[in-house]
Amino acid sequence: MAEILPLEVIDKTINQPVWIILQSEREFTGTLVGFDDFVNVIIQDATEWTTSQTTGISEKVMEHHGRLLLSGNNINMLVPGGRRSGN
Amino acid sequence: MSERSSEHNPQRAHSQQQNNQRKKFESPKREAILDLAKYKDTKVRVKLMGGRLVVGVIKGYDQLMNLVLDEAIEHLKNANDEISKDKTRELGFTVIRGTILVSISPVEGSEVIYVQTSE
Amino acid sequence: MLPLYLLTNAKGQHVRIELKSGEIIEGELTNVDNWMNVTLADVSEYSNGDNSAQTEVLKSSEIYLKGVYIKYIKLQDDIISTVKQQINNNQHNNKGGNYNNRKYNNRNYNNGQGSGGRRSNHNNSYGNNGNRDMNRRHNNNNNRRSYNYNNEHGKPSNDGTGGYVQHHAVFNNDNNNKVEF
């Protein structure tokens, strides 16, 4: 019965690279600094991307230096370890 | 008390459905209606608000339907904004938010069929 | 008859659900909760791009759907009478169901107000658990007002109907008639 809890997975990602996919075509990569129960998220030195949902190709929008607070409202998925090399 | 607990026993409630005469009037449930434990380590299709389709192996979940999927694949869309069957991208080990989950169904035992529509 | 109660008692029936995205999903309703999240068995999913001569259908054994994403649920045409019959059956099966109670409920249905019947019905089932006739009659006399009260505050607690009864019981009978959850 050793369950993997989603919020525990996010917790273990703190201080590690993370890839955050929003409801829209926008995505963020960076180092996870912290999060709360709503999965509002703080990431360090984030890069913001738009990724076409038809081609899967990402374009860099901008780089955010320092910390960035991302509302949990629009977050669809979080991928620990950051962006996959194929993407 | 025994009468009450039978209302919340799905097995019993279902057998009551079979027997029309003994059906019991039921209230909506407050507890979880889907036991994700039976899908653990199996492949599921998850649809998200905003139209994404993700297929992956359930490794974990919580009460709020946040999911941990392994080997997750997101299906991309074709030109008509419909979900494509073959165009995918790899996400890997992924946490999906329960708040934006729309539907979840097992991949195993599912099949695509084509129905002729009369025009 | 509240929508969620109707739906809850339509379990086992074939339903057709349209999601906000326009997708249509059919199957046997197996479970419903307070948020109208549902599970279906023997599911057929139809995508909305049905302009060609062929429609693609995805068949699967089970599906869970979020209630907030449902546009509508098409139930069987005879669902209301079926569920009414269920309520009546329930009362006839209750040894404690007295004549007055039944008459009250029937009148209510004829007026098209299922609410009183719904509640009384539960009074009955709790009444069986060591309750006295006194309480039941008392409840009936106060039915209308009590319903309005609950309606104004609009929050069924716990499992919905049971919640109404609990409020009612506490207001009228103090500890005499406590319902456990």
Automatic annotation (TrEMBL), chain A:
Cite a single Pfam family from the UniProt record.
LSM
Which residues, if any, are the signal sequence? none
PROSITE patterns referenced in this protein's UniProt entry, alphabetically: SM
> Which Gene3D superfamilies is this protein grouped with?
2.30.30.100
Q: Which GO terms describe its biological process?
A: mRNA splicing, via spliceosome; rRNA processing; tRNA processing
Q: Which CDD domains match?
A: LSm5
Question: Where in the numbering of this chain does the Sm domain appear?
Answer: 5-84
Q: Does the keyword Transcription regulation apply?
A: no
Family statement:
Belongs to the snRNP Sm proteins family.
Which UniProt keywords are present, listed alphabetically? mRNA processing, mRNA splicing, Nucleus, Ribonucleoprotein, RNA-binding, rRNA processing, Spliceosome, tRNA processing
GO molecular-function terms, A-Z: RNA binding
Q: Which GO terms describe its cellular component?
A: Lsm1-7-Pat1 complex; spliceosomal complex; U4/U6 x U5 tri-snRNP complex; U6 snRNP
Q: What is the name of this protein?
A: LSM complex subunit LSM5
Quaternary assembly:
LSm subunits form a heteromer with a doughnut shape.
From TrEMBL, chain B:
Pfam families associated with the record:
LSM
Localization, UniProt: Nucleus
GO biological process per UniProt: mRNA splicing, via spliceosome; nuclear-transcribed mRNA catabolic process
Q: Which PROSITE patterns match?
A: SM
Family matches, as InterPro entries:
Lsm7, Lsm7/SmG-like, LSM_dom_sf, Sm, Sm_dom_euk/arc
| Keyword flag Cell membrane | no
Question: Looking at the record, which segments are called Disordered?
Answer: 1-29
Q: Does the keyword Hydrolase apply?
A: no
The entry's family comment says: Belongs to the snRNP Sm proteins family.
Query: Which Gene3D superfamilies is this protein grouped with?
Result: 2.30.30.100
Q: What is this protein called?
A: Sm-like protein
Q: Where is the Sm domain?
A: 31-110
Q: Which GO terms describe its cellular component?
A: catalytic step 2 spliceosome; Lsm1-7-Pat1 complex; spliceosomal tri-snRNP complex; U2-type prespliceosome; U6 snRNP
**Ranges of biased composition (kind: Basic and acidic residues):** 1-10
Quote one Gene Ontology molecular function term.
RNA binding
What SMART domains is this protein classified in?
Sm
List the keywords (alphabetical).
Answer: mRNA processing, mRNA splicing, Nucleus, Ribonucleoprotein, RNA-binding, Spliceosome
Q: Where does this chain mainly localize?
A: nucleus
Automatic annotation (TrEMBL), chain C:
What keywords are annotated for this sequence in UniProt?
A: mRNA processing, mRNA splicing, Nucleus, Ribonucleoprotein, RNA-binding, Spliceosome
Please tell me whether the keyword Hydrolase is annotated for this protein. no
- Alphabetized InterPro entries for the sequence: Lsm4, LSm4/Sm_D1/D3, LSM_dom_sf, Sm, Sm_dom_euk/arc
Task: Kindly list the GO molecular function terms attached to this UniProt entry.
Answer: RNA binding
GO cellular component term of the entry, any: spliceosomal snRNP complex
Biased-composition ranges, Low complexity, are 89-112, 122-132, 140-151
Q: Where in the cell is it found?
A: Nucleus
- Residue span, Sm domain: 2-79
Task: One Pfam family, please name it.
Answer: LSM
Q: Where is this region: Disordered?
A: 89-181
Q: Does the keyword Nucleus apply?
A: yes
Instruction: Spell out the SUPFAM superfamilies in the cross-references.
Output: Sm-like ribonucleoproteins (SSF50182)
Principal cellular location given in the protein's record: nucleus
Quote the biased-composition stretches of kind Polar residues, using this chain's numbering.
172-181
Q: Which GO terms describe its biological process?
A: mRNA splicing, via spliceosome; nuclear-transcribed mRNA catabolic process
Query: What role does this protein play?
Result: Binds specifically to the 3'-terminal U-tract of U6 snRNA.
Family statement drawn from the similarity comment of this UniProt entry = Belongs to the snRNP Sm proteins family.
Subunit and interaction comment: LSm subunits form a heteromer with a doughnut shape.
Protein name in UniProt: LSM complex subunit LSM4
Origin organism is: Maudiozyma humilis (Sour dough yeast)
